[in-house]
Amino acid sequence: MEKLYRLARLKPTIYLGFLAAFLYSSWPLGYIFNPFVWRHDLASQLAAPHQPYNWLFIVADILTGFILVVIGLLQLKRRSSLISPLSVYGYVFFGILVALAAMTPLNCDPAVDNCGPILRDPRLIIHGICSIVSVVFLLIAAIATSRTVYEVSAPKIIRWVFKGILFSWLVFGAGSLLEMKLHIHNNLLQYYFITICSLSVLCVVSAVEYIGQKATKIA
After folding, report:
1. What is the chain's mean pLDDT, rounded?
2. What are the tens digits of pLDDT across the range 57-77?
3. Residues 209, 75 contacting (CB under 8 angstroms)
4. Cα–Cα distance between 101 and 124 in angstroms, integer?
5. CB neighbours of 84 closer than 8 A, spacing ≥ 6?
6. Which 8-state DSSP code applies to residue 115?
7. How many domains does one find in the chain?
8. Contact between residue 65 and residue 16 where contact means Cβ atoms under 8 Å apart
9. Is 41 in a helix, a strand, or coil?
10. Range of the domain at 67
11. Which of 103, 29, 21 is nearest to 68 (CA)?
12. How far is CA 42 from CA 36, 48, 83, 112, 174, in A?
């Protein structure tokens, strides 16, 4: 634990990781700036055109992508052979796609089927593809990093953290299937998932930094 604390004090990438995670999980701000949408609609509706303070949520996601690209460039520059490139490329592409999705905000709500024909709305297609594929890349990064922390015999607390992260992804998957089967429409599961994605970003970035430092000491 003391080593992790020293790592957090010395590495700017850790602070950038915290910032990216905070910005991506901006949905609690909806309670202050757009309480109606925050209670009733999906998080993406907070950034929809004509919604109050929509620019705040758009900028937060764009900055998330920018920061993750910066972190990725820093970590790729001094990446250890112990670290799977999937760990870094995974969260970098996640960030890029999050930013692209934010640049094409929805002007409708798919949850209530008021978007019209999908093929006639390129913005809806781009937003949907970027949103779905982004979390796939992040999941790949989380799985690759989880495997690495076991291969390098990282401290038990780190291994348990990644167990918890992957289990949280499984909970989301099971919850999504349950919502589909029971036709449940609410935004709580999405807010939960956004939070898990934020924690995944922070954990992956921190683990890559830790493993890189460990490899440098061994060398």
Report:
1. 86
2. 999 999 999 999 999 999 988
3. yes
4. 9
5. 144, 145, 147, 148
6. S
7. 1
8. no
9. coil
10. 2-218
11. 21
12. 11, 10, 35, 10, 19
